[in-house]
Design a protein that fits this description.
Shape: globular
Strand content: 25-35%
Structural class: alpha+beta
Helix content: 25-40%
């Protein structure tokens, strides 16, 4: 590793300081007859789905309107901050999730599409978003209630957008931004110590190579990791995750 100002020794993150998890989409039927996850958006992180098995779709709401993007083994879909997304189960859908700015989503960079009256009350929102610890029946029931509440709000946003009215969608974005505003200092610290530090190390290494100094290659090594939590209840489905020091925070049911 190249050291110097702003390049303190940090835990080695995954390439690009991304987050990594595996999802099996929920097969719970929602009010509209569709099986799938809890619609939500991210405020500063782009998310990618790499489909490893089965089939399904991801429904999105954005300034582009409403889209229903098919998913099958080998396909990839990704969505930028502000895009409401809902994973839809079509049959044994399994996905590897790659998340920009690892650590930020676990620290709250996601807001569910709960109805407006829930979004307007931070305490009520926090209570609706929280899950009991563990992976048992009580947690499953709470995750399903949370999913149903998110779908309730989502269906109203989608109907308005399909009918040419983007007002509710834009107000949801504003409400989401208000809910997370106090978390930004924590996110900034995580970003500086993770994604930004990783990019800065690359810059320092380029500078060293340009000066003819490949000393950082002397610290070459390999790492390995295995899932540390299996079958947790994520936003979109059952979630297997990796607790990588410095890059991924413990699952908080969010």
């Amino acid at each position: 590793m190249v050291s110097g100002p702003g390049h303190a020794a940090l835990p080695h993150p995954l390439p690009g300081a991304i987050g990594l998890s595996h999802l099996s989409a929920y097969d719970w039927e929602a009010a509209d007859g569709v099986c799938g996850g809890s619609p939500h958006l991210h405020l500063v992180c782009t998310e990618a789905y790499v489909v490893t098995g089965g089939r399904g779709a991801v429904q999105t709401l954005s300034p582009d309107g409403y889209r229903d993007i098919p998913l099958e083994a080998g396909s990839i879909a990704w969505f930028t901050p502000g895009t409401v997304h809902r994973m839809v189960q079509g049959g044994d859908l399994r996905i590897t999730v790659l998340m920009q700015n690892s650590g930020l989503p676990e620290a709250g960079d996601a807001v569910f599409t709960f109805p407006p009256e829930v979004l307007a009350d931070p305490d009520r929102y926090a209570a609706a978003a929280a899950l009991p610890p563990g992976t048992g029946p009580e947690t499953a029931a709470a995750a399903r209630r949370r999913r149903d509440l998110a779908v309730e709000g989502y269906l109203g946003l989608r109907e308005a957008l399909v009918n040419g009215d983007n007002g509710p969608y834009l107000e949801f974005q504003r409400a989401a931004a208000r809910l997370v505003r106090d978390k930004v200092p924590t996110w900034r610290k995580l970003w500086r110590e993770g994604a930004l530090a990783t990019a800065e190390r690359t810059g320092a290494q380029l500078d060293a190579l340009a000066a003819g100094d490949p000393a950082h290659l002397g610290e070459a090594t390999a790492y390995e990791a295995a899932p540390t939590r299996l079958g947790g209840f994520g936003m979109c489905g059952r979630r297997d995750e990796y607790a990588l020091p410095g890059t991924t925070l413990p699952n908080r049911g969010e």
